């Protein structure tokens, strides 16, 4: 079984959500997709797949000005990390810990069934065939028995889930007891809906109140912050990874050609040009616009400069990233299909060796290994250590800490506490009995283990086990993809090396709802960037577009965001 996130970070806020939907609809194996979500294998995201692409990230969700960060800090649970099973590669400043082998014995983190016999409905998405419902589903029966409560799932088509969410929220009487909403499906004014329909969980788990739910207390604070709306804590999070994107290179082909990965922006261009040989159907690079922005330290949305907010498209870093990428294209080093805008085949080009460097989400790493290793055992892709353009220390902005949330409908306190106790069971970390049950079902019924101890679905497991309980809340992610030789060590150590360079932007972890009138304000810059990179337009066109942006509401939007920092 494969292991951000859904890979809600299978891209990050830049591409995770939209890539997730595209890949799911294109026929991602349901069991593989479940694996991506499970604690048994690394979820890279959310991210930002689940970390999200400009069209698919979690919509900011707050509507009024004030000291939002201070307000949120009072709502979230106190963080009390657990280490029930010690990782082989420990976390460094929030990086993903790695397990180079599957634990031979499991820890029990919840001593007794946490429920008191309640029955609840829960609505979740699925990007795969909908499994049998109760009472036909033995997986649901087994988990509910261990929970000491009954959860009846209403599983809906993930590709149409946004419409389903809006329809349900329009009729409060139809809202289930427990409702999953991916960040990319949060509708406009969701904060107002949350405050009216869902339970403010801060009354039960803010600060040290969470101590009665140790697995929930093990979820990092940043993930909880993303569940705060309209002055309350409403969302139970699915945690994501620290870093969602990398610039990958074909390490196997680099070795054959006798070259090493670049360590500066100029070296990247020079190497891409050196590697390009049209007669051999080989180009040095794919379109690495996303990676170029990360390399140049482009802020996700807003940057504070001398006490004033600058939008990312106004910053010097954004201009530098545009100019550098345009030069890369002008060098003739980018694959012609990428120049033509064919992003759909970029993975295939990279995996075939037609292009040797590419920017992608971290989730693409294990996906590529699964596709290519059976036919090409020498295939080896690796992420470059990030560098600043001059080769110095990079500035990496932290990926969104959560991309999927669940919400509990307002009800009497006893039922809320029971559901939180159930959530505590579901949030059991990697290496626990509860985690294996939630993600794989019952051993011998829904899965067996291979020689490495990795769960492998049986026919019944393939039919019945799905990411339903896992969507309601999840444990912090780990990397345990031991089925790919060397991957755990390479990936966890790479992330640990990058972690000291990770910073949080000014609005990290804040859900801010922009007024609807600003909805399309930034869209022209996406097409403009493509034109500038390909030489069809120049930096003067960026200046002109910025003037239009300011006059049509950019300065007003700046003032709106500044209010949340006051």
Task: Summarize this structure briefly.
50% of the residues are buried. Helices cover 36% and strands 12% of the residues.
N/C terminus separation: 48 Å
General shape: globular
Structural class: alpha+beta
Work out the number of β strands.
16
Computed over alpha carbons, the radius of gyration is 23 Å
Indicate the proportion of strand residues. Answer: 5-15%
Tally the helices: what do you get? 23
- In terms of per-residue confidence, which ranges show pLDDT below 50 for 5 or more consecutive residues? 1-60
- Give average pLDDT, whole number: 88
Main beta sheet:
5 strands, mixed
Q: How are strands sequenced across the largest beta sheet?
A: 2-1-3-13-6
> Helix amount, in percent?
25-40%
Structure description:
With 566 residues, the chain is of the alpha+beta class. The chain has helices spanning 16-25, 30-37, 68-73, 138-147, 161-169, 190-197, 202-205, 214-217, 221-225, 251-257, 265-275, 289-295, 316-330, 336-339, 346-352, 363-372, 413-426, 433-440, 459-464, 469-472, 487-498, 523-533, 539-562, and strands at 119-126, 150-157, 178-182, 228-229, 232-233, 235-239, 245-250, 302-305, 308-311, 357-361, 381-383, 396-397, 402-408, 447-449, 455-457, 502-503. The strands form six sheets. It has a five-stranded mixed sheet with strand order 2-1-3-13-6. The protein has a three-stranded antiparallel sheet with strand order 10-7-11, sandwiched between helices. Strands 4-5 form a two-stranded antiparallel ribbon. The chain is globular and about 65 Å long. The termini are far apart.
């Amino acid at each position: 079984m494969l292991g951000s996130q859904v890979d809600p970070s299978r891209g990050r806020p830049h591409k995770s959500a939209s890539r997730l939907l595209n890949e799911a609809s294109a026929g991602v194996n349901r069991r593989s997709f479940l694996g991506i979500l499970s604690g048994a294998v690394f979820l890279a995201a959310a991210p930002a797949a689940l970390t999200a692409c400009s069209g698919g990230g979690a919509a900011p969700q707050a509507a009024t000005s004030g000291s939002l960060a201070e307000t949120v800090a009072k709502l979230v649970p106190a963080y009390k990390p657990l280490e029930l099973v010690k990782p082989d590669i420990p976390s460094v400043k929030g990086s993903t810990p790695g397990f180079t082998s599957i634990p031979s014995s499991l820890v029990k983190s919840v001593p007794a069934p946490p429920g008191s016999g309640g029955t609840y409905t829960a609505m979740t998405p699925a990007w795969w065939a909908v499994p049998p419902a109760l009472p036909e589903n033995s997986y649901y029966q087994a988990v509910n028995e261990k929970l000491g409560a009954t959860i009846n799932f209403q599983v809906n088509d993930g590709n149409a889930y946004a419409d389903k969410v809006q329809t349900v929220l329009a009729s409060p009487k139809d809202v289930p007891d427990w409702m999953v909403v991916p960040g990319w499906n949060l509708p406009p004014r969701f904060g107002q809906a949350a405050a009216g329909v869902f339970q403010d969980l801060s009354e039960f788990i803010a600060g040290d109140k969470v101590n009665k739910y140790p697995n929930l207390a093990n979820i990092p604070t940043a993930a909880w912050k993303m569940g705060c709306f309209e002055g309350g804590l409403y969302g139970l999070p699915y945690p994501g990874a620290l870093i969602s994107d990398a610039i990958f290179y074909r390490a196997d082909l680099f070795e054959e050609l006798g070259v090493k990965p670049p360590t500066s922006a100029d070296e990247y261009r020079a190497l891409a040009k050196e590697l390009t040989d049209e007669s051999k159907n080989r180009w040095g690079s794919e379109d690495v616009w996303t990676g170029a922005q990360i390399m140049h330290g482009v802020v996700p949305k807003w940057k504070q400069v001398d006490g004033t907010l600058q939008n990312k498209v106004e910053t010097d870093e954004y201009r530098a990233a545009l100019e550098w990428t345009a030069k890369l294209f002008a060098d003739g080093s980018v694959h012609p299909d990428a120049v033509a805008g064919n992003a759909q085949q970029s993975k295939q080009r990279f995996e075939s060796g037609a292009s040797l460097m590419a920017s992608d989400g971290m989730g693409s790493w294990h996906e590529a290994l699964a596709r290519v290793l059976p036919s090409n055992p020498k295939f080896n892709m690796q992420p470059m250590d990030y560098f600043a353009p001059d080769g110095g220390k990079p500035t990496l902005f932290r990926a969104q800490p959560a991309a999927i949330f669940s919400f509990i409908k307002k009800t009497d306190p006893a039922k809320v506490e029971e559901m939180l106790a159930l959530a505590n069971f579901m949030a059991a970390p990697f290496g626990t009995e509860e985690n294996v049950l939630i993600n794989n079902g019952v051993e011998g019924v829904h899965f067996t283990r291979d020689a490495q101890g990795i769960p492998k679905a049986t026919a019944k497991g393939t039919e019945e086990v799905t990411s339903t309980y896992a969507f309601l809340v999840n444990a912090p992610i780990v990397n345990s993809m031991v089925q790919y030789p060397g991957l755990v060590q390479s990936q966890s150590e790479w992330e640990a090396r990058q972690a000291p360079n990770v910073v949080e932007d000014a609005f990290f972890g804040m859900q801010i709802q922009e007024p609807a009138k600003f909805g399309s304000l930034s869209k022209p810059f996406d097409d403009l960037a493509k034109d500038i990179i390909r030489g069809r337009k120049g930096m003067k066109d960026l200046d002109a577009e910025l003037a239009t942006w300011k006059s049509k509401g950019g300065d007003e939007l700046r003032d709106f965001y500044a209010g949340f920092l006051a």
